Amino acid sequence: SEEGMDSYPLIRACLETNRLNLSSGLEVINLLYNAYPEAIVNAQALFRRGIDNSRFVNGVEDFIVQQLRYAAQASNLQLVRTQDGNGRLPLHHALEEDAPLGAIKLLVQ
After folding, report:
1. Is the separation of the CB atoms in 102 and 93 below 8 Å?
2. What is the mean predicted confidence (pLDDT) over 2-20?
3. How far apart are CA 59 and CA 96, in angstroms?
4. pLDDT digits (tens, 9 = 90+) for 55-94
5. The whole model's pTM is what?
6. What pLDDT does 7 receive?
7. For burial by CB atoms within 10 Å, which of 25, 27, 33, 36 has the most?
8. What is each CA distance from 10 to 34, 85, 96, in whole angstroms?
9. Cβ pair 63, 20 in contact under 8 A
10. Rounded to whole angstroms, how far apart are CA atoms 74 and 91?
11. What is the DSSP string of 26-94?
């Protein structure tokens, strides 16, 4: 396995999920992400490398890309506190988009 890819249970779950176990795999991924959303931030480079190397099945890659987007927003304190034209924050948009609990946790830290 690539160096570092086994460092986080979230990455391992993403790598082990395939077309045959996609539904249950995504459930496990969601549970791990909601429990420890910082994994997506701490291992951002590994997740991006996995995407670049097509290591993840489509549904999993879509999930990761979306969570990386929330993580990027959460890491920009000015962006997190900036309202859009309707007075809404990124947190409001995430809630509206039915984002996972992990994304909400990152946005309210």
Report:
1. no
2. 86
3. 20
4. 999 999 999 999 999 999 999 999 999 999 999 999 999 9
5. 0.88
6. 76
7. 33
8. 10, 35, 25
9. no
10. 9
11. HHHHHHHHHH-THHHHHTHHHHHHHHHTT-S-HHHHHHHHHHHHHHHHHH-HHHHT---TTS--HHHHH
